[in-house]
Design a protein that fits this description.
Elements (H helix, E strand, L loop, with lengths): L1 E5 L4 H12 L4 E6 L11 H6 L19 H6 L3 E5 L1 E7 L4 E6 L4 E5 L2 E4 L3 E3 L12 E2 L4 H11 L6 E5 L3 H12 L3 E5 L11 H13 L3 E3 L4 E5 L6 E4 L2 E4 L2 E4 L3 E3 L2 H5 L23 E3 L6 E2 L6 E2 L4 H15 L13 E5 L2 E7 L2 H6 L4 E5 L2 E2 L10 E9 L5 E8 L3 H13 L4 H5 L15 H13 L5 E2 L1 H9 L5 E4 L3 H6 E2 L4 E2 L18 E4 L4 H12 L5 E4 L11 E2 L1
Parallel strand pairs: 1-2, 1-7, 2-3, 7-18, 9-16, 10-11, 10-16, 11-12, 27-32, 28-30, 28-31, 31-32
Antiparallel strand pairs: 4-5, 5-6, 8-17, 13-14, 14-15, 19-20, 21-22, 22-26, 23-25, 24-25, 25-26, 29-33
Helix pairs in contact: 1-8
């Protein structure tokens, strides 16, 4: 059996390795347009920053063996044609037309063909984008060029256009290398995969680290004499000695489209659960292939190396006659932002509403371990659920606390189709060095249960701020201690410590709605219960407390 694989970075090599293990008689050929094979593209920002010392480390096995052409030939029994481009697929003759760097051409016959052509960087047609020192980050060679442009100078002005995962990860690298950095994002917030209140926390963290975040800003032109010197936007000009354009990627599906294969609504190659395209002898895996959202059942496109490896294995299993199916994705993603972790899985709030769910959300900031443990760190958590079915729909977390553990648990809960009630009673590991006795996730699930059961009426801090700015009259009740209020407070709020609330009910105007809060709104919830028991009819709890407040805070 002849198997030709077009693409040699992630999904392609994974498929080749699996086929070698299952079908010893298969003749596998990998065609790769670039020079390098099977490198960890997601590690490029950490190579730029110097966390990864040598680029070779991104191309080695855990035993230190470089995954080059000799490795794939001798260990994986796969022939590699690197620096060779596949230019056409003849589905009738079942051949792939290829051309190498020397201009030599040949036709490769196949019984099964795997397309692992990946994704292409989206480069907007902005005037001046061809100036020197304007980069995108696709491979190790790009990373080498970026390092060379930054390292000799230090303290240079750097601009990143695009605040997605790549832009955010490289932003930390530039900042650590001593650059004066501005991140320009067209949308209202960076990290559009996160809900606005969660993205705002990350923006605040960037600002605290000295990174300028410029949102709602459109780049109009790059200017300079041969080399970029400034970035012109609709909100002013920014000095720039180096620019990274990271405005997203698109599936590399041209070869498939020209071969007459079905392209899905996401512009990626349509596949079934076995990763077969509309031609049963051709498979598509990795960033060029369309996904299915496991919650909505609709087509989705979320290019990730982890998904690519899973899909490569599924396609190999199918080719070798082993029953397997790729169930889809949840859109799980994570990134490091200095000492913050930013993670999400499932549907965001807006996605869930657009999908037709009756959405219930909660914000639950709290320490990730008991407060008495010296390793305890803050963690901001959000859960999203459907009111009718009580099923969990998604989760997001950020902060210096352990976000990855919580989001991995949410991902498994989503995969199992769990309700918030089931999550609230999940038997998670507990010991003070690792988590609170009532884990952050279980607390958040219980908040959702209280809301769904009518025991609590919540309101997001952003909605509270919008009501204030809109001129609505209500009492914003702060039930923290005087010492806490002295450190930071919301202007115009009424402070009555929780312990004094029952004795001071007369200080609160019963004719106005009351919105109670504290640091994280646990005491705010208790205050709301006291007020309801005392006959107050319009009482809400500000989700997430003062820690999630998006407006100005008075300090001192």
């Amino acid at each position: 059996m002849n198997v030709v694989i077009i693409g040699g970075v992630a999904a392609g090599p994974k498929a080749a390795s699996r086929i070698n293990r299952l079908c010893a008689d298969a003749k596998v050929t990998i065609v790769e347009k670039g020079e390098l094979l099977s490198y960890a593209g997601c590690g490029l920002p950490y190579y730029i920053s110097g966390v990864v010392k040598e680029s070779k480390e991104l191309m080695t096995t855990s035993a230190g063996t470089v995954r080059d052409t000799a490795f794939f030939q001798n260990v994986k029994n796969a022939r590699v044609l690197n620096r060779t481009e596949a230019t056409a697929i003849d589905r009738t003759r079942k051949t792939v037309h290829v051309r190498n760097a020397a201009g030599e051409v040949q036709d490769l016959p196949y019984d099964k063909l795997i397309l692992a052509t990946g994704a292409e960087s989206a480069l907007p047609p902005i005037p001046g984008i061809t100036l020197d020192n304007i980069f995108n980050l696709k491979d190790i060679h790009d990373a080498d060029r970026i390092k060379a442009a930054v390292e000799p100078h230090k303290a240079i002005n750097a601009v990143i256009v695009g605040g997605g995962l790549i832009g955010v990860e490289v932003a930390e690298a530039f900042q650590e290398m001593g650059c004066r950095l501005t991140v320009i994002e067209f949308l209202p917030h960076i990290l559009s995969i996160m809900d606005p209140e969660m993205a705002a926390l990350v923006e605040g963290h960037f600002e605290a680290k000295g990174v300028k975040i410029q949102t709602r800003t459109k780049v109009l032109e790059f200017k300079g004499e041969g080399r970029v010197e400034r970035v012109v936007t609709d909100r002013g000009e920014f000095p720039a000695d180096i620019v990274l354009v990271a405005v997203g990627v698109r599936p590399s599906a041209r070869l498939a489209q020209e071969a007459g294969l079905v392209i899905g609504p996401t512009r990626a190659i349509a596949v079934n659960a076995q990763m077969q395209t509309s031609d049963p002898d051709i498979y598509a895996v990795g960033d060029c292939a369309e996904k299915v959202n496991m919650i909505t059942g609709k087509p989705a496109y979320v290019p990730l190396g982890s998904t690519a490896n899973k899909e490569g294995r599924v396609a190999a299993n199918a080719i070798c006659g082993m029953p397997d199916a790729f169930p889809g994705i949840l859109g799980s993603a994570i990134c490091k932002v200095f000492d913050f972790t930013v993670a999400r899985t499932g549907l965001g709030e807006k996605e869930a509403r657009e999908a037709g769910y009756d959405v219930v959300t909660c914000l639950a900031p709290a320490p990730d371990r008991p407060h008495f443990m010296p390793t305890s760190k803050p963690l901001f958590l959000k859960l999203i659920a459907d009111r009718a079915s009580r099923k969990l729909l998604g989760g997001q977390a950020t902060g210096p606390g352990n976000a990855e553990r919580r989001m991995d648990i949410v991902a498994m809960a989503l995969t199992a189709g769990m309700t918030v009630d089931q999550l609230a009673n999940a038997d998670l590991c507990y010991a003070p060095p690792y988590s609170p006795a009532v884990d952050n996730l279980i607390t958040a699930a219980n908040i959702l249960r209280n809301i769904m059961d009518g025991l609590m009426s919540g309101i997001t801090p952003s909605d509270v701020l919008a009501r204030r700015e809109g001129g609505e009259s209500f009492t914003l009740l702060d039930v923290r201690s005087p010492a806490e209020v002295a450190q930071m407070r919301i202007d115009g709020s009424l402070n009555i410590p929780l312990g004094a609330l029952r004795k001071r009910l007369g200080d609160i105007d019963r004719s106005k709605p009351v919105i109670a809060f504290c640091k994280i709104s646990l005491r705010g919830y208790e205050a709301a219960l006291i007020l309801k028991q005392a006959g107050f009819t319009d009482v809400k709890v500000m989700d997430g407390g003062i820690l999630m407040w998006p407006g100005t805070l008075l300090r001192g």
